[in-house]
Amino acid sequence: MNGSKKFYFHTHNITYRVNNRTEIRRVLERLFQNEKKNPEQIDFIICDDEYLLDLNKAHLKHDYYTDVITFDYTTEEINEGVVGEVYISIQRVRDNATKFKVNTTTELHRVMIHGALHLCGYKDHTAVARTRMTAKEDYYLSLF
């Protein structure tokens, strides 16, 4: 699969190295393939709590910390595939890893998958939708 160049990893306002990028790209490629979506360019931006809070306030009108926010820029008229950005607070990831008793890498993978699923059209606004999304996250996590 040569599509792995479609997934990019960045940081904003922090120093952090995303490890095992090849493995992450492999799982993400499988996710988009299974969900019958064509990823054109997906950027994962690892940032701090304050930056993600500012995005949450500005774009979603939510005044609280969160672990991930996804922006879908896909437009049928312009793009041939899915284009988006997934912003992730590494502080929330670390806190959630402790809370859920998993390692930070596993939790980071989960929120990356979560963001990718949003780009595939999955929602998490209801209990039923959250249950479905969590099951998908668990499945794709099992591929690591």
Work out the helix count: 5
Structural class, from secondary structure content? alpha/beta
Which residue ranges are poorly predicted, with pLDDT under 50 across at least 5 consecutive positions? none
Q: Let me know the average pLDDT.
A: 94
Order of helical and strand elements: EHEHEEHHH
Q: What can you see in these coordinates?
A:
- This protein is α/β, with parallel strands linked by helices and about 140 residues long.
- Helix content is about 45%, strand content about 20%.
- The protein has five helices and four strands, in the order βαβαββααα.
- The chain has helices at about 20-35, 50-60, 90-100, 105-120, 125-140, and strands at about 5-10, 40-45, 70, 80-90.
- A four-stranded mixed β-sheet has the order 1-2-4-3, with helices on both faces.
- The longest helix has 16 residues, at about 105-120.
- The radius of gyration is 14 Å and the shape is globular.
- The model has no long low-confidence stretch (mean pLDDT about 95).
